[in-house]
C-alpha cells in the first residue's frame, strides 16, 4: 500500500465506492479488516464518517470533508514517491492495468514480459474485462491505465492511439461460405452469428461499421452472445456459424487450419486500439515508463515482439 497511512487508503476506497465489499476487493483485504480500519478512524475523529442504511452507506458531512483532504494527501504521497524515485534513478512500484479482451489475451502478455525485463522492480497487476468495464474501473480509480479496443466517449479520459487492428470473419473449414475469397455481405444473412457480449469493444465496432451498410447488426441471425474471443472461436470451430474477431487472435487457428479467415467484400473492419487514462490524475514514473515502452511496441506483430522484448 505504499508508505501512506493504511487507514487513509481504506477510507478513500470505501468513500469512493460507497461499499465496504468493493473497497475490500480493491485493496485485497477482508471486509472485517476494512470495517475495523474505518471504526478506528471514526474513533480518532470522534465522529461518524459514514451513515449506515439497510443495504448502502453514504458520506456524512464530516466524511465529505475528510474525503477531500484524503484525496489531496494521497496525491501528495504519490508525488513524493515519484520525486524520490526519480532522484535515485530507480523505477519501481505497482501498476494496476486494465485491458479489454483481445489486447489482454493476445497483445499485452509479450509486451509485459519485455517491460518486466527492463523494469524488474515494477509489479503489474492486470485485469481483463470488456471495454465498458475497463472504463468504469478508470472512473472508479481502481486501475491506473487502460488499454481498450472499443470506442471511448468520456471527457475525463485521455485516449492515445496504440495501433490499428483488423476484424475478420471466421468460419469452420467445412462452411459453404469458405468458397468465397471475400464474402458478399448478403451471403451472411440468415447464417447463425456468434457475437461478443454487450459492452465488448469488438461488438461496438462491428455494430458501428455494419450500421453504414445494407446489413445492420440487428439483421444478423444472432445465435450466441459470448464473453470472450476464445469462446467465440471455440463455438465457430464447433460449427455453430460465423464470428467476427481480431486477426491478431487467429495465429494458432490459422496455422492448424481449425478456422478459416475471410474478409467482407468491398469493406475492411478496422478499429483503433487505444491507451486510456485520466487527464488530470498524477501518473507514477512506472506508469509513464510503461506508456513509453508499450507505445514503441504497439505496432509490432506479437511474433516480432518476442524477438525485440
Explained architecture:
- The protein is of the alpha/beta class.
- The chain has helices at 6-17, 20-27, 31-45, 61-88, 101-118, 131-139, 201-210, 229-237, 251-256, 285-297, 302-308; strands at 50-52, 57-59, 93-100, 122-129, 145-148, 157-171, 182-183, 192-196, 221-226, 242-246, 260-264, 269-278.
- Helix 1 (6-17) crosses helix 2 (20-27), helix 1 (6-17) packs across helix 3 and helix 5 (101-118) runs parallel beside helix 11.
- It has three domains: 6-87, Arc Repressor Mutant, subunit A (Orthogonal Bundle); 90-163 and 272-308, D-Maltodextrin-Binding Protein, domain 2; 165-270, 3-Layer(aba) Sandwich (D-Maltodextrin-Binding Protein, domain 2), CATH 3.40.190.10.
- Strands 3, 4, 5, 6, 7, 8, 9, 10, 11 and 12 form a ten-stranded mixed sheet that branches. It has a two-stranded antiparallel sheet with strand order 1-2.
- Helix 5 links the parallel strand 3 (93-100) and strand 4 (122-129).
- The longest helix has 28 residues, at 61-88.
- The two termini are 29 Å apart.
- The chain has eleven helices and twelve strands.
- Residues 300-309 have low confidence and may be disordered.
Amino acid at each position: 500500500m505504499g508508505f501512506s497511512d493504511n487507514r487513509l487508503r481504506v477510507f478513500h476506497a470505501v468513500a469512493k465506492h460507497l461499499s465496504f465489499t468493493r473497497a475490500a476487493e480493491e485493496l485485497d483485504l477482508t471486509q472485517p479488516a476494512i470495517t475495523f480500519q474505518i471504526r478506528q478512524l471514526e474513533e480518532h475523529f470522534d465522529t461518524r464518517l459514514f451513515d449506515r442504511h439497510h443495504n448502502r452507506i453514504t458520506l456524512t458531512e464530516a466524511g465529505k470533508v475528510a474525503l477531500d483532504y484524503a484525496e489531496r494527501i494521497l496525491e501528495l504521497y504519490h508525488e513524493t514517491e515519484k520525486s524520490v524515485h526519480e532522484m535515485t534513478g530507480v523505477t519501481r512500484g505497482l501498476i494496476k492495468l486494465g485491458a479489454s479482451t483481445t489486447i489482454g489475451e493476445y497483445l499485452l502478455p509479450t509486451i509485459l514480459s519485455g517491460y518486466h525485463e527492463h523494469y524488474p522492480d515494477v509489479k503489474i497487476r492486470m485485469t481483463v474485462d470488456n471495454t465498458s468495464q475497463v472504463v468504469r474501473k478508470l472512473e472508479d480509480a481502481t486501475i491506473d491505465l487502460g488499454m481498450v479496443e472499443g470506442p471511448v466517449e468520456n471527457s475525463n479520459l485521455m485516449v492515445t492511439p496504440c495501433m490499428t487492428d483488423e476484424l475478420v470473419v471466421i468460419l469452420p473449414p467445412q462452411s459453404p461460405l469458405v468458397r468465397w475469397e471475400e464474402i458478399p455481405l448478403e451471403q451472411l444473412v440468415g447464417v447463425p452469428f456468434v457475437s461478443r457480449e454487450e459492452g465488448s469493444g469488438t461488438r461496438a465496432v462491428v455494430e458501428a461499421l455494419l450500421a453504414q451498410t445494407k446489413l445492420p447488426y440487428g439483421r444478423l441471425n444472432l445465435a450466441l452472445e459470448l464473453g470472450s474471443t476464445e469462446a467465440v472461436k471455440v463455438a465457430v470451430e464447433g460449427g455453430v456459424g460465423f464470428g467476427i474477431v481480431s486477426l491478431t487472435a487467429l495465429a494458432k487457428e490459422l496455422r492448424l487450419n481449425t478456422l478459416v479467415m475471410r474478409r467482407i467484400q468491398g469493406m475492411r473492419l478496422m478499429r483503433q486500439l487505444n491507451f486510456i487514462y485520466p487527464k488530470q490524475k498524477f501518473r507514477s514514473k512506472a506508469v509513464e515508463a510503461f506508456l513509453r515502452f508499450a507505445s514503441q511496441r504497439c505496432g509490432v506483430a506479437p511474433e516480432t515482439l518476442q524477438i525485440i522484448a
